Each structure stands twice: as structure tokens, then as C-alpha cells.
Amino acid sequence: MEKTMDTEQETTNSLLKEVLNEIRQTREENKVFRDEILELKKENNKVKTELEETKKKLNILEIRVERCEKEMKLLEINDWFVDKKFDFISCLNVIDRCDTPLKLLHQMRDALTPNGTLLLAVVLPFSAYVEAGTNHKPRELLPISGPNFEDQVKSVIDNVFTPANFEVVSWSRVPYLCEGDLQQSYYWLDDAVFVLKLKDF
């Protein structure tokens, strides 16, 4: 299990590093040296990423926070997107645990710089679960359908990303180990990781 988790982290870090290198190269070519990064994450997300090692400024948004490391700047959940622009936003395995995922997607779109990049991961087949509330169902339902992983990838692109004015630069299927429950200690799931850009730029 430990070896599998290491492989998962290496795969995620490799993809992050590739995207961040592309952003850095674009900034250098255009002589733009500002470096605004936003990572949206769930509570207790323990995966260490290349973001923590390679970026000069890393803004972290968490639903509930017990502590914040010194090198990170914590943004308020209700206004992190107001009057702020980011070159890169990371949103890994959040929209399936969010009460208003469409609203969050639009906020991320509006918070990106014109040539910014959104790295978004979601477990497919899609299954929404919100910890808060009695029925654990989100107020907004994402129109994702299909009998298998590939069909749901097409569905999330056509029915979620495209209407939100995103285009897919690339995507990958990676393993994702999820915290378990009383039945078993962990679950082996499939993550779809998307690199997204704004369509108008």
C-alpha cells in the first residue's frame, strides 16, 4: 500500500511540475515575473505537491483550517476570489465534495489571469458527497453522466467545462487512494486530472 501511495504522489507531482514549468516559461517569454498561485483543498489533504517546493507564493484555501504553515497565506473562504487574479489554480478532488461546485468553478474561472491555468482533479465515476448537512447531497448537481470512466470524462468536458468557458489542454487518468471507512481501510479510485485554460484566450 505504501508503495502504491508513493507512486500516486509521484504521478501527481510529475504532472504538477510539468504544468508549473510551462507557466514559468510563459512568464519568462512575456517578461512577466509575478507569481500568483492558488490551491483549493479539502481538510486533511496530506498529499505533498510540487507546488510547495517550487512556487514563491502559495495561497491556500481550506474549508476548515486548524493551522496554517508560515510560508503560506490563508485566504478567506467567502472572498478569496474578489479582486484577485491567479496565474495557476490547483483544485484536486474538491468539486465532488463541494456544496456548490458550479459556483466554485465559475469563481475559479473569474479568478484566473487571461492566460492562467486551472489544474482540476475529480474522481470518476462521479459521486458527490458533502460532509455538512443531513443528507450529504450538494445543492448544485453537476450534469455528469455515463456508464464508465471514458464516457464520464466526455460528459464532464461537454457538460461542465465547456459551458463554463474552459477548454481542455490535456487530461490524464491516475490512481487515487481514498481514506476508507468501517468496511475497509482505503479505497482504490480513478482520478481524472484536467489541465484547463480559458477558451477566449
TrEMBL record:
List the keywords (alphabetical): Coiled coil
Q: Which residues form a coiled coil?
A: 16-78
Any GO molecular function: protein-L-histidine N-pros-methyltransferase activity
Task: From the Swiss-Prot or TrEMBL record, give the protein name.
Answer: Methyltransferase-like protein 9
Q: Does the keyword Coiled coil apply?
A: yes
* Matching Pfam families: DREV
Q: Does the keyword Membrane apply?
A: no
Q: Which InterPro entries match?
A: METL9, SAM-dependent_MTases_sf
